[in-house]
Amino acid sequence: MSIVAETPLHPAERHPIRADVRDLGRVLFGRASNGEAPLALEVWRLAWPAITHYLLITLVFLVDRIVLGHYSSAALASLQISSILVWTLYSIFTSLSAGTLAIVGRSIGAGDRKTAAKTALASIGVSFLLGLVVSALVVTSAGASLPRLFPQAGAEVLGDAEAYLSIVLATLPLAFVEASAAASLQAAGDTKTPLFAALVSNLLNLALSLTLVFGAFGLPRLGVRGAAIGAAAATVMQAIVLVGALLRKNGKLPIRSVLSWRALVDPRALERLGAVSGSAFVEKVGYNGGYLLFVMIIGWLGPAAMAANQALTSIESVCFLSADGLGVAAGALVAQKLGAGRPEEAERAARIASIMAIAILGSFGILFAVIPGPLVSAFGSDPAIHDLGVRAMYVAAIAQPFMAFASVMRMTLRGAGATSTVLAVTVVGTFLVRLPVCYVAAISLGWGLVGVWIGSTLHWVFETAVFRAVFARGAWKLKKV
């Protein structure tokens, strides 16, 4: 038996979560100095612009939902189809941003800004080319595919969905560029420029949507097409602002020093991006393919359930985008700290971000349970939609802390380059938990929209349990990219 005296552990090492909560409290209540809680401050300084950025991106869709909800119920229900399809395509084909975040962040952490710039440039170049291909394919096939995918939606809803898609899908190349540019800046520690881009584009979308949907100032009354024009203009504006920021002389990434046509399709940079992003691509295909099936289940419940679900998703977007913003901060810091050879700081940054997310989303969950009626009423006055939405809102309240933790952990693992782990958890959770439970609860048991949200909540509970075990094991800190 050894009798060698052990070095006493620092209190923060004995109780890491307690220490993180204490430091976080100092940050939130203004009692932290750079010497007291630098990592918690670092997380928050990256997180709040990222949270606001994501909220502003989704505000484009949210504005469209509110405006169209007061235009007609059919127009609002159509966004259950069109906005989900646009977001699905965006999510799947911007998976290069996962590799961009990991590699640019690692390179910045290691002090290799030139490699970071080359990676960012290659990501943007391929994203644009991919956007051209996807846009052309989807625009030509959307009209024939929608009635097959959503047979119960009705002619008016399908017509509005097709009109919206015909305009917005044309901007996919720039939407993909925007995602890669934003990921590059965030990985380099700049979350404020994407925030500024989102703010400018939202003001543009708000002005165009309000003017064109209802035909103000003598302009034609365009309905859904007016909302689509506003959303498309917002995408173009964001891409212009973000690419312009990357090309600045004194930017965080020396893009101008490596800029060339060859650099846009640099084989070595693309190989590294592909190695990390490949699993993220498959993960997003699986998740979003599953989500389309999830939306089809809601479609079987009829237009009222579709419109109510759009209202609930819009309300909940404030929550999951807050979690995603904290996830961006966690992923960027994890990548930078691992690149700098400081894995314990990477772990602590992720833990602090998850505590923040649970606190924020838990508070929203309480709000959902206390005042569900007024929240749902913001999206229209139809009593059937209001009734369905309020009942499901109570289930959504329970989901919030689980969604918070799982969302931050997903981005943490992506920032570490452990995208294959995220892929496995996502596929199992989507196809063995979410979809079966949703179908049984909503259709077989007849619980309708409440059953759908029960399935969604159990999915978040499953991901929380698995990601917690993966994070605690710590193998993600050893991942090479």
- Through-space gap between termini: 42 Å
The figure for the number of domains is: 1
What helical percentage do the residues reach? Answer: over 70%
Output the helix-strand order. Answer: HHHHHHHHHHHHHHHHHHH
Q: Estimate the mean pLDDT confidence.
A: 85
Q: Runs with pLDDT <50, length 5+?
A: 1-15, 26-36
Number of strands: 0
The 3D shape can be described as globular
Question: Would you summarize the structure shown here?
Answer:
The protein has 481 residues and is mainly alpha-helical.
Describe this structure in words.
This protein has one domain (15-474). The chain starts with 10 loop residues before the first helix and ends in an 8-residue tail after the last helix. It is built from 19 helices and no strands. The chain has 481 residues and is mostly helical.
Q: What would the keywords be for this entry?
A:
globular, disordered N terminus, single chain, 481 residues
Topology:
Elements: H1 11-14, H2 16-28, H3 38-69, H4 73-93, H5 96-109, H6 113-149, H7 155-168, H8 172-187, H9 192-214, H10 224-246, H11 255-258, H12 261-264, H13 267-300, H14 303-339, H15 343-370, H16 372-377, H17 383-416, H18 419-444, H19 448-473
Helix pairs in contact: 2-15, 3-4, 3-9, 3-10, 3-14, 3-15, 4-7, 4-13, 4-14, 5-6, 5-8, 5-13, 5-14, 5-17, 6-7, 6-8, 6-13, 7-10, 8-10, 9-10, 13-18, 14-15, 14-17, 15-17, 17-19, 18-19
